[in-house]
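Reopening closed ticket. The problem is back. First fold of the pair:
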Amino acid sequence: MSLLKEAWPASRLVTVLAGDSQDVARQQLRREWTKRLRVTVSEPIYAGLWKDIERVCENNRETPWPTLSLSLFWQFANTGERKPYEDVYFERRGRLVALVLAAVAEPESWRIKEVERGLLDICGEYTWALPAHVREEDTVTPPRQQVDLFASETAQTLAEIILLLGEQLNSHVVAQVRGEVERRVLEPVFWEPRHFQWETADHNWAAVCASGCGIAVLLLAEDDPRKAAAIEKMLGSLDCFLAGYREDGGCPEGVGYWVYGFGYFIYFADMLREFTKGAVDILTSEKVRQIAAFAERVHLSEGIFANYSDSSETERLPAGLISRLNALQGRPSTLPFRIPGLLEDPCRRWAHVLRNLVWTNPLAFGNSEAVVDYLPQLGWLMCRSHNHNHNHAISGTPTVEQAAIFAFSAKGGHNDEPHNHNDLGHFILHGGGENLLCDLGAGLYTKAYFSPGRESITNISSGGHSVPVINGIMQQSGVEAQAVVLDIALGEQGAAQMDTRFKLDLTSAYPVEELALFTRSFAWNVLERNEGAKLTVTDHFEFETSDGSIQPWDVEENLISRIQPYTGTGFVEWKGASAAVRLDYDASVLRLEVEAVQHMDHDGVPFVFYKTSLGLASDRCGGAASVDCELFFTINHSSF
């Protein structure tokens, strides 16, 4: 892929970013967005989103804006807790989003006044960056001018609000907003650059920050040469972002961060194309098309995903973004159609909500299909069965027929990925629209979550994944811990039957001196007429010491689920709402234990998950130096 910055230096950009053409583009975009927003108010598919908007607006009239006090800001430094400050920060953004959209839909004077108060309130914040991202020790760049993900998002949000409502707002308010965006973001990023680390990052930070800042400069900067130089700089950051993806288009951070990073990349790319009359189109490469397909490739069913790294299995995919990506790929998506509500997004992101309203196209979504897919650079395997009777529901409500889909996913890769979890060889079993054996996803973000020793946190540790503990030792972090693919066979017979093999060498993941070899093999088969599915997991261990003696060893096979298991002699069952999985094992050599673990999810909500452990020790295997441990899983439509 050619570099965006090299293809579009400032000397070329200045010719397609001329002042008159920018004014025309702004006016046209304002008309299109305004017209589309007003139409959606009466369209049933947007009813839930508009209900959320009305609810937030009503709350704004009944209660004062929550205050972002300095004491709340310093709480992160003092305790490591992020949530108290961020809850207030995002509620304030959510109020502004709702007020603006309501004012565009019905531009009554009192609504405009509410928007002006909200804008001025956000203009008065100590900093637009989150406390976790502010470097107080930075003596060159004060907190007010430190540009992180959320300062960039705020700049974009305010710039797009001025685009939509600027002519109806008090001129002094508009001047204040423009001035704050200029001082807090455009100046430190472009006019007097401080060279932030995200500018050369190969992950979501580069895309979100570059796109937020890029849209702000497109909409607000008047000087053509300076605007061209700024866009050239942001294209360089987007080059770094795209370099973080390999040819398979896989996102190691997971589907949630794919939505975040690649979503903002699309938002900026679309506006840049419009403002240059199609001259600068950065969406045409094959690599971009591969990245665009990622969420669909890791989708299991019912909006449930293979959610390795810091993603949720129930990510809220923006309907507007997916509609745009479907158009980019020239075909309907197999993802389910659903427009998320404003309150479903804890961050209340303006960019997603706005484009859900102005971009969504229900006809861009299609039916489910059978998939056996492997992302070779990422090392993720996905197998999803097909249901002949699957009926796509525009409402997004699950149907009985959809429960027939069975899916399996397994993970290779290495243990030094962005938002890394030590999870090589981990797997997910899915049936009836839920992950029966699951990945816990992201934990509650605190200072410790991103500090040395993070491997001890349940969500990150291999102890929180369906992988073994060997001689009491869990997987190590680092790129040296790699899953080596020994065998892969992506078999598929017809639309409802698959026979797939996947074998990994995971020896390097475990810093166990006496471990000579550990391989994990998966064999997945979907039965005729999609009546069920079977998975066999075979772990092979070889132990030896430098003097050739055989020392005692033990292995603990762990399985993670949010469903409380039912146990009996030689079997375990996890019964979901529409499907169940049964594990059969050799009770003569494996010892069973089930632990209920009190935990907290990424949003700080308590829940319980269950760790099922099967213990295997050398004294139960006649002191052998090598052993195979086989686990036989069967998934059916209902309990057995």
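Second fold of the pair, where the issue appears:
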Amino acid sequence: MDESLLQNAAPAILEASSEAILTIDARGTIKGCNKQFLLLAGFESEDTISCTIQDLFPEFDFVSPRHDNDIATFSPTKFTKPDGTSSLVLIKVIPIGKAGDSFKTILIQDPEIIRRIIDHLDYIDCYDVASGLLNRHKGTLEFGQLQTRAMKGGTFFVKAQIPSTVDTDDREYGEVLKRVSNHLKPSAQQAIICRYSISELLVICVSEVPCNIDILRDAIDKIKTDPHLDDAISIWLAYQEWNGANDDLNSIVHNLRHHLVEMYTPNVLEKIKEQSSPSLRNIFLQNLNEALDSNQLQFYIQPQVSSESNHVVGGELLIRWVQPNGQIIPPSQFVDFLEYGDFGRTFLHWSMERSAELLAQIKKECGRWIPLSLNVASNYFSKEVLVDPLVQCMDKYDIPYENLEIEITERVLAENPKDVMHTLQMLHHKGFKAAIDDFGTGYSSLSYLRKFSLDRLKIDRVFVTNLAENEEDRLIAVAIASLAHVLGLEIVAEGVEENAQAAFLNSIGCEYFQGFLTGKPMPADQFISFCIENEKNVGPVKWSNNQIEDLKLSHRPRKVNWKKSFSTDIVSVDNEHRDLIDLLNKATETYLNDPLSLDLGNTFDLIGAETLKHFDHEENVMRNMAYPRYETHRDKHKWLIADLSKRKAEILSDPEGTNFDEVLRYLKYWLLRHLISEDTHLLRYLNKANTP
């Protein structure tokens, strides 16, 4: 290879990699490096590097010739920083030029950051982050295990209400439920305790005898006297027995929700046991019916803006109960009541009709369509109840279907996955968009994401609030963002309130923001005025000059934030990966030397053709080795090719308005999506298979 060509391609290679990279000469002198290496080693700049490669890696032999197989793999070795601290890293040495008298490129991976991200993804698959309890998905699986063993017992159901917040705080509710669960443990020593929703706790006990009233009384007394549980917090309780495989957990919970008793109710224990007192819920539902009839229930709209331009690209419909005196009842006090019985269907039909009215009004006054998102509960996910009425509402106002996004929570996915999946497919076929809300709070399995027809993922505010102070939240946010992009989902970050948060989220690839920084929930007429005014100030925006400092994450390239190009231990596959990167770098070189000589259409065709050949080969390798995630990986290949074709069509439709720098960033992001999509799983599978 012509070393001058490599030098020209070096800036692109350095920018595209998240690994620490440095170049040394034959004597081991460090001749250049990227930012990742400076961060890893603790150097302020290249000018401050005064040591040799042997000082940093005293146990690694950089002098002896290395075999071709060694070049294709990372090797573990000790890394000694200038401050004297040491850690284990993975290192790969790639010679440049003739062996023995050449420059070498050194690639370094820090396995600790990768392990932590993998652990976070595994953790949120089973646990609720805010409370530390089992999540709904894991709790349901554990209950299924009890049922297969023909056991029986009882279920406590707890609902908390925090009246002080208009928009519910997941972390605050998590702390409350954790405190309550600690007091219930003695009454349920053999129990599954899981957070069932943002404000609900489920305790599944295993016992041969009915609930012990004395133990439950003691637990309630401790909850009442807990100094960390504010008197303003409402705690509601219900209890029901279960027996073996005869009881469905969703049915149990549905019944428990209808028989909740407030903890401070006189004779609360008797009420819980009787479950026959006059229903406070029915009184509340009657009040809600009257509120709907008198227009006290209103949709407020919170803007969703582009992270690149601060341009309003949509809005979320949020229900508010505005009383005649102007006082707003917090949604946390009534939102769960919107799903029950006849009122639930009445409210759903009102929501669809009102959504269509608002879309038409916004189009008329703003002169453009501004998509809105509508939250829908799981028990309404069917063709008859949701799809057909929704189509009728949109047709009535002549609204293109893609302007309404159906927003569902992880709870919805977990409660009724088969019906939800089928209904989402029908909505997707019609042209409606779909988003998953509150992602990462732990109510469902990560594996659900690839099965459902989704377009966007919303990172829950619990991971955004403390980004500046909490590295763990930054790790989770990066992991979720990477997962979403691998699956081809756009990202909305919720709860964005500070410029530093926005800057960090923008750097890891969040396309949209929703929070007080960019706009509070507001009545429809104010939202329209907000959008009209916003149109006057659209353009590139720099959110903050004070980036959140994080040595491992803050300097990662856009949208490929935690990519680690692991070796798959399959030399032919790794070589093809490198060939694809070389192909991209050659296109970059052509553009830099003579922009007019680069044909974007041919470039896309060439990369697409080489990628198809690589995908075919990689799939054959995985199939022959009986790789268990073969079908998942193949599906990602199909998505990547479809995305490439779509992007090519967009560019060719407006060649004059195409900026190659933007195309290059897209292609690097597109390719690196493939490189990170299965490397972690494949490497772990191979290591496990090779363990004696």
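Update: turned out to be a display glitch only; the data is intact. Residues 549-567, 676-692 have pLDDT under 50 and may be disordered. The chain has 23 helices and 20 strands. Please close again.
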